[in-house]
Amino acid sequence: MIKNYINGQWVSSSAKESVDIINPATGELLNRCPLSGAGEVDQAVKAAQDAFKSWRETPPTERAQYFFKLKTRLEESLDELARLVTMENGKTLVEAKGSVRRGIQMVETACGVPTLMMGKTLEDIASGIDCHAVRRPMGVFAAIAPFNFPAMVPFWFWPFAVAAGNTFVLKPSERVPLTQARIFELINEVGFPKGVINMVHGAKDAVNAICTHPDVVGVSFVGSTPVAKHVYTTATAAGKRVQALGGAKNFMVILPDAIMEQSVKTALDSIIGCAGERCLAGSVILSVTNKTNQEVTEGIVRYAKETMVGNGLDKNTQMGPMISQVAKDRVKGLIQSALDEGAKILVDGRQGVDAMPGYYLKPTVLTGITKKMRIAQEEVFGPVVCLAQVETFDEAIEWINSSHYANTTTLFTSSGAAARKFSYEVNPSMIGINIGVPAPMAFFSFGGAKDSFFGDVKVHGTACMEFFTDTKVTVQRWIKNSSIW
Ligand code: NAD
């Protein structure tokens, strides 16, 4: 059974319930995760609250030193961490390594806290009166993470919050807590003062305890839309700042002037990479005109059939398993719903997986997708390519904007004018132009719109200090009271 990390100590949970942590490639039991409750969240918040005063008084330049050390330890542990991600999540080693690298970039960016956190000053806002605004840490923040990026997603939050002088409680996904367990060993080695960063393992009860705890000032959440909405409404009702990133339905438009071979490969990688379990994964390809649709279909079918599916630890594997049998059955249900509603299956990834040991679903290609089908509206979160044909670029944009999700969308084109029109007119907040997974890096902000994001302030990049600090303004006038100058 893995342990919580509270007040600088590894602590056994008193929870009676736990969940199995399963390697999705083999079905093997890796460990067990306790489902800690409100009492343990309270202990972690108290530890963080007690640590806050002296941590916030530690100069930002000194706080930054812990992150320089952590960055070095993470670099040294990159391969080991990637292996853990693959083992508990299923993605390939290459994908896992990329995700750990993205996490490390957050730590690197947080090293710049003395600059990131600077305030603003203006002399003479009125005659002889100056105004200065500083950013101040606020207290205890918390983050709740999903299963699909065990290493990266927690790094979207806590390095920025803690570098800014706050203290923190992390609740990883109960399905993939092993990578964070190792990362917290590195955090422990780096020697952050006791209570500054804590981790409580659990699920629903721990989440609800975080959202209602009187001493938690802000909550960051990443996960499915229903839970994002729940966290947003519960935690804001309890007076907290909240940023809650939800699910997605991402459309990719291919125009006739796109560089076809490259575009088709990029679109397929976006859809089936990480077995489709990415919030930025493409889902429906909207090909503009019949000719484009034919070319796209031919390429997608060819590449989908060639994809090597297997254990992510194997060097030749291009796509790993899904996270669980439940997830696989849900995606199979969505494929069946599309067929029942009139779609045709060109590559059936449900075939040839039963003899495999884990939760495998091979790339599946559906054609004849229409806007009203369930599969065109719901998040699939699996390796399913949905092909649809539209007659005009405007029709494609209209389709994208009719979705209640708005996380990301991609256009494949060689026209600057088309690219400009697309970025200008579509709803999603993260746009790819000839890029399949347009994930903003640490120094830009991340987050969608509509049902993909609940809150006001996005994640990392320039937005992070808005979320993790309060702005305090001092307006001052100094009246001369001396006869010697
Ligand atoms: P999930 O919503 O099931 O779980 C996320 C977190 O919420 C976990 O820590 C879990 O313990 C907790 N949780 C689950 N059910 C709960 C409940 N009823 N009450 C309170 N807490 C609960 O999500 P998941 O399956 O782990 O992750 C996949 C989802 O995350 C997908 O929808 C994906 O699009 C989304 N996601 C979004 C982004 C983004 O940036 N928008 C990034 C990654 C993942």
Q: Any descriptors?
A:
single chain; 485 residues; alpha/beta; Aldehyde Dehydrogenase, Chain A, domain 1; Aldehyde Dehydrogenase, Chain A, domain 2; 2 domains; seven-stranded mixed beta sheet; six-stranded mixed beta sheet; 22 strands; binds nicotinamide-adenine-dinucleotide
Could you explain how this protein is built, in words?
The protein has 485 residues and is of the alpha/beta class. It has two domains: 266 residues, Aldehyde Dehydrogenase, Chain A, domain 1 (3-Layer(aba) Sandwich); 184 residues, 3-Layer(aba) Sandwich (Aldehyde Dehydrogenase, Chain A, domain 2). Helix content is 39%, strand content 23%. The structure holds nicotinamide-adenine-dinucleotide (NAD). The site of nicotinamide-adenine-dinucleotide (NAD) has 26 residues, from helix 9 and helix 10.
* Poorly predicted runs: none
Bound ligand species: nicotinamide-adenine-dinucleotide
The average pLDDT score comes to 97
Q: Please report the number of helical segments.
A: 17
Topology:
Elements: E1 4-6, E2 9-11, E3 18-22, E4 29-34, H1 38-57, H2 60-76, H3 78-89, H4 93-110, H5 113-116, E5 120-126, E6 129-137, E7 140-144, H6 152-155, H7 158-163, E8 167-171, H8 178-190, E9 197-199, H9 204-212, E10 216-222, H10 225-237, E11 241-245, E12 250-254, H11 260-272, E13 282-288, H12 290-306, H13 325-340, E14 344-347, E15 364-367, H14 374-377, E16 384-390, H15 393-402, E17 405-406, E18 408-412, H16 416-425, E19 430-433, E20 449-450, E21 453-455, H17 464-468, E22 469-477
Parallel strand pairs: 7-8, 7-10, 8-9, 10-11, 12-13, 12-18, 13-16, 15-16, 18-19
Antiparallel strand pairs: 1-2, 3-4, 5-6, 6-22, 11-21, 14-15, 17-20
Helix pairs in contact: 1-9, 2-4, 2-8, 3-4, 3-8, 9-10, 11-12
The structure holds nicotinamide-adenine-dinucleotide.
